[in-house]
Amino acid sequence: MGREVSESCIDGLLTEMVSSYCNRFYSNTPELAARRIEAIGYQVGHQLSERYTMERPRFTDHLEAIKFICKDFWSELFKKQIDNLKTNHRGTFVLQDNKFRWLSRMSGDPSVENGTQDPESKAAQAMSMYLYFPCGIIRGALSNLGIPCAVSADISSLPACSFVIRIKV
Amino acid sequence: MEEYPEELRTPPVALVSLVGCTDHHPLISSFLNAEQPPINTLALPDFSKITLLLSKPTKSDPANNGGILKRDWLLKHRTRVPAVVAALFSSGHVSGDPAQWLQVCTDIENIKNATRPKNIKLIVVVVQSSSNDEISEDRMIALRKRAEIDAKYLVIFNASDDLLLKQSLDRLRGTFAELANVYYKDEGRKIKTRVEKKSFNSHELNVRYCFKVAVYAEFRRDWVEALRFYEDAYQILREMVGTAKKLPLIQRLVQIKTVAEQLHFKIATLLLHGGKVVEAITWFRQHNVSYRRLVGPTDVAFLHWEWMSRQFLVFAELLETSSKTIHSNSNTTLGTTDLAVTEWEFLPAYYYQLAAHYLKEKRTTLELSITMSETADEIDSNAESVAPSIYVGQFARLLEQGDALIMQSLTDEEYTHYAIAEGKRFQDSFEIIALLKKAYETFSNLETQRMAHLCGFHMAKEYFGVGDLSNAKQLLDAVASLYRQEGWVTLLWEVLGYLRECARKSGRVKEFVEYSLELAALPVSSDSGIQSLRYKECGPAGPASLAQREIIHKEVFDLVSGETGLQSIEGNSDLQVNGENPLHLEIDLVSPLRLVLLASVAFHEPVIKPGASTSITVSLLSQLPLPVDIDKLEVQFNQSECNFVITNSESPSAAVSSGQQGWRIESAPSLALVTNKWLRLTYDVKPEQSGKLECIYVIAKMRPHFTICCGAESPASMEDLPLWKFEDRAETFPMKDPALAFSGQKAAQVEEPEPQVDLILGATGPALVGECFKIPVTVVSKDHAIFSGELKINLVDVKGGGLFSPREEEPFSMDSHHVELLGVSGPEGEDESPVGPDKIKKIQQSFGLVSVPVLKDGESWSCKLEIKWHRPKPVMLFVSLGYFPDSNESTSQRIHVHKSLQIEGKTAVVFSHQFMLPFRQDPLLLSRIKSVPGSDQLASLPLNETSVLVIGAKNSSEVPLLLQSMSIEVDDGVERQCTLQHSGMDLLSPAHLVPGEEFKKVFTVIPEVESTSLDLGSVSLRWRRNSEKEDLSTSDAKKDWVLTKHKLPNIKVESPPLVLSLECPPYAVLGDPIIYLIKIRNQTQLLQEVKFSLADAQSFVLSGSHSDTVFVLPKSEHTLSYKLVPLASGSQQLPRVTVTSARYSATFQPSIAASTVFVFPSKPHFTTTDMGDNKLESI
Amino acid sequence: MIVCVAVVGHQNNPLYIQSFTEADDALKLHHIVHCSLDVVDERVNNPKKSGLTLNETFLGLLYPTENYKVYGYLTNTKVKFILVTTDLDVRDADVRNFFRRFHAAYVDAVSNPFHVPGKKITSRTFAERVSNIVKSFGLSSAG
């Protein structure tokens, strides 16, 4: 296609979207905000997968589709591939990106970093809001490929991020 | 296919004729017919017949009449023109008198004359009646010459015995087959030359010749040539469509198509029989493409469609019969290339379905033709006299002229009249249904459900057309459900239109209303992206459009209001909704009428306190095109006291009629449902009863005699609206609050009233394994009296595993229960005796039910639970009390109080044991020295020697314990194989053992039997808690000693071959010499060679040999004697001896403890006193 | 001539269906399109038997019926495109080309942020593009 998008615009849009939903529309119900952000990601993923799979033969199994997400799809979105793919062969896949672009300009709460990990901490919670959007994208892309699934994200050490895909049977 | 004549349907069979000797004919005929390939026979009784048969005049030049194929040509070769004539003569006649011989000659001559011009082959058969019937050679030669035939065609037929008969028959058959083949080949070649030389003046003849060549080839079973010539004929015929001019246009087309049909049939049959399924299908495709556009003039178009339908039908039948024999179409490759044959083209059902389609086309065009011809109002009375002419596909008028019938050719107009008159005679609907049914069944079996349902739909339309409404409805319902499921709205619209008409015609008001409402609520609108369809093809519901929906909406609401009946129904005026015939519709979760009315109900709070009011929102949505006013809404719950009614304040009529069983009445300013807009109503409910409160129905009263009962749905789990979910419409939430819209539920939990009773579990400290642990449970009533109280006791493993099944790591579980509820002892003070078994209903060892007596306000009651731990394990104890605060159980509600307590089970005492050998005596225990790694690590003891066993019991609990006794007991039924004694006396009074303290007791063991694994029995320890409180309690508590058993490990007993004993004084004094004896005793019957060496010791000066080899005689002792002078005081190590037995190649040393001695600096002075009592040895 | 094109969604529901005939056979074409889904199902479930290679998106001729030929195409996202034509001789390359252009138009239509996934396509631009593609069908296989 050759069209280019300013990265800072995307970053700004993402930040603004998260802050709008978390602080303005659903400030007292974070789970609803998460749901809305995920839904936006879902639609984006749904539509992108339609375009990026256009010229290729159909996938025969789940793994092929997941590999597509890891390679071509990720490259289109982030100009890099997923660094590590793991599976338990029973419908769970873990996609690890060692330098997730949308987290590369974020830093965690230093008190969290040197102390023990506290999932309830405010910084981690705020960070997780930014991950609903990429989770939604993955879920949207996969479900459009006929694989209904649940996607969650895990940030153990910034800016690495792993996405856990559980395929519903 | 059935309508084809036999001679066309089946492959040609050679025909031969038999003449003379009539009595043999049946035998020969049946034999020839049964053989493979079969030969048909034409049996003629006498020789005059054959000349009659063959001399039938045939027209010399058929070309002038313009036909293509003669209708009877195939039949003629089947039944009248034999390829071979066999003249049978009895041997008697042949070799008989001159008169007979003359007769034979005449007959032969006649036959020759008859057959020769037609090139029919001749065989002469001489029938011998017996085997010894000799015929002279001369006569035979004469006969052959007469008949002018080869010797091999003069056959002798002998039927006198079976073997000869069989031979004769075989010979006859071989000759027949050979000659028939020659005949057909000759005939074929004759015509083939005509084709090759193009010696004909018309295409018709060309086609005919090709056809004939092909048929002759078929007679010879030369399928390849047959196929080639049929195909040639077909191609030439196709070219004739534009060129042949001999007949008027319509009849010309009819003739060509009829001939093409025959040729195609032949080709398809040959291909299919040859297993060339794909070729046959491709050929049929070609055939279809070539002719399907040759419709001809409109007034006879129906003939074309009928012809098309027949092509499909016949091909379907051919495919069906051949697929029974050939299953080879699986290996044919399909592909995406254009020439590929698709899956369905292998299915006869596919052709049946298309045959039905073309038959329908025929019916429509026929109806059109009939109306056109009726306006011309000429009913031709002469139509009956039209009959098929002698040519295939031609018709002519039969005119009687005296005896003879004369064929007169027809004009196209006459022919058209005739065809229409013929067409009227047939009822096509049933034919169509039959065809569709075949297709429907096959497609259903193949699970190609959409095609099957399309066939079903077409069938239903036919049934509808002929007035069979029940069959139609059944099929339509199935079709409708498929279209609903897949969201094909326009198709559904058409189907529902038919269903609505079925309901209208059969006078079912409810169904009529249901289908009408569904139609009106379908997502059809002019801007829906799906083209608006024209009126004509939309079936009885009219065009699918918003306007039409509104019309249907109005129509149905006029009907349910009672304003109009359905006047449009023929002969049925009773379709009305009024007081006598009220109408009540139900809509559930799967009903297609959810489009019409959807009720979403949500409680604002998931948990409600009894007696407190909470809000509930009832939201209604309708997709009907016009606004609907609701008179009254009833909201029904599972607790009927909560039901309430919402009336429309704008509608006064509703207010009057709403006196329903004292239900609460709410009023709403307006109850108008607007298309695709939620009507949200929020009211309070005040539940009194605890438990689940669920909204079940919302009943909307639309008109005085029309109600819709709609199942309530939770917004959280609401399914998308079927059909509308694919539409691009504004979607709103049923609830304003988005949280409620996502998670609202139609059911809420009503809490129980607050219990006014205390339940106290008093437990002291952790429980000890083995003891019967008592937990007092006290019920104190504070504000409520307690009636029918019941305590439920439940023990649950804290870690989640079972309490009962032995764990994998504990395979030696003695008891099946690790923790057990033993019982409940009665309330203190009230009744001394424990609660009888009738009062405690023990269901399982972890579960109990105890009934609590009636308690008045302020009273209390208590009991003790007895729980026994068999394993150290934490346990959660759940106790729940259920009671009624009122004596009247029916009005009051049961109230529950729950308490739980985690109790640790701990081990009270930990046992340890230790074996000790006799002092300064070391037996050579081979197993101890040469222990095999990995083998059992049993302690080994010397046989018949006294060993010491020290058993310790350590208090591992946190409370002081009292020990009563410790003993070693042997398991029942096992004879003890060793002497076990304990050195001291039994405990006179219980010993106190504070936490961490260990009690030790010393036993002596003398094994009496050599054994690799001797059972020592187990230690029994009697103990109980030693607490100040229990000292005060009743005396029976003292008896309540807990017995804990500990299994001792097995030991190994062996007799030592050598025993090393050291002898030295109990003490030494610095500087005083002492005697140190080392005795090596040989206990075996063998001479033992023993090496010994003595290590130097720093603290002693010694005299004696350091090392040597000695021989010890059997059963004797060798003594090494040393004199030592101690050089240092204190506990000193004696010089250590190392003994090596040559026989056992084993080295052993006395233990360090055994070889020490205490050296006093100067001679001590001792006073000895008698130790009267046995003190506990404590560490 | 192409008489009908359709887009069919995951649940075999029509997302877009447009016929290009003057005659009154739109409903019949709907039926034809609907039945063709049976063949699509069969091709996809038994790829070996139908000889499809490499899970190609183009499914080829689904079935001929009456005067029509029905072609199918299945995207990676399980959306089906159906083409009904009356042409006797259809070149495979033409159909492939048609479907490729149609797919591109479809992707553009559903990438519209105002389009909700799974709903019918109501875009007028899409309709215009489709009618252009239909008009140019078979004119040049190069384009």
Write the layout of secondary structure elements.
The complex is a heterotrimer of chains A (169), B (1179) and C (143).
Chain A: H1 7-25, H2 30-52, H3 62-78, E1 84-87, E2 92-97, H4 110-114, H5 122-144, E3 149-154, E4 161-167
Antiparallel strand pairs in A: 1-2, 2-4, 3-4
Chain B: H1 6-9, E1 14-19, H2 25-34, E2 39-44, H3 47-54, H4 73-79, E3 84-90, H5 91-94, H6 98-115, E4 121-128, H7 137-147, E5 154-158, H8 162-197, H9 203-219, H10 223-243, H11 249-273, H12 277-291, H13 301-325, H14 348-375, E6 386-388, E7 395-401, E8 404-409, H15 412-424, H16 428-445, H17 449-466, H18 469-486, H19 489-505, H20 509-520, H21 546-560, E9 583-587, E10 598-603, E11 607-608, E12 614-621, E13 628-629, E14 632-637, E15 644-648, H22 652-656, E16 664-668, E17 672-673, E18 679-685, E19 691-703, E20 706-713, H23 738-743, E21 747-750, E22 757-761, E23 767-768, E24 772-781, E25 787-797, E26 819-825, E27 840-844, E28 847-852, E29 860-869, E30 875-884, E31 895-903, E32 905-906, E33 909-916, E34 921-923, H24 926-929, E35 939-942, E36 947-955, E37 961-969, E38 978-982, E39 991-993, E40 998-1007, E41 1011-1014, E42 1018-1025, H25 1028-1032, H26 1036-1039, E43 1042-1047, E44 1051-1054, E45 1058-1063, E46 1067-1069, E47 1074-1082, E48 1088-1094, E49 1100-1103, E50 1107-1112, E51 1117-1126, E52 1130-1133, E53 1137-1141, E54 1146-1148, ...
Parallel strand pairs in B: 1-2, 1-3, 3-4, 4-5, 9-20, 10-20, 11-21, 15-16, 23-32, 35-44, 46-55
Antiparallel strand pairs in B: 6-7, 7-8, 10-12, 12-18, 13-17, 14-15, 14-19, 19-20, 19-21, 22-24, 24-29, 25-28, 25-30, 26-29, 27-28, 30-31, 33-36, 34-45, 36-40, 37-39, 37-42, 38-40, 41-44, 42-43, 45-47, 47-51, 48-50, 48-53, 49-51, 52-55, 53-54
Helix pairs in contact in B: 3-6, 8-9, 9-10, 10-11, 11-12, 11-13, 12-13, 13-14, 14-15, 14-16, 16-17, 17-18, 18-19, 19-20, 20-21
Chain C: E1 2-8, E2 14-19, H1 26-45, E3 58-65, E4 68-74, E5 80-85, H2 92-110, H3 124-135
Antiparallel strand pairs in C: 1-2, 1-5, 3-4, 4-5
- What portion of the residues of chain C fall into strands of 2 or more residues? 15-25%
Oligomeric state, counting identical vs distinct chains = heterotrimer
CATH architecture title of chain A: 2-Layer Sandwich
Q: What does the overall shape of chain A look like?
A: globular
Gyration radius of chain A, to the nearest Å?
16 Å
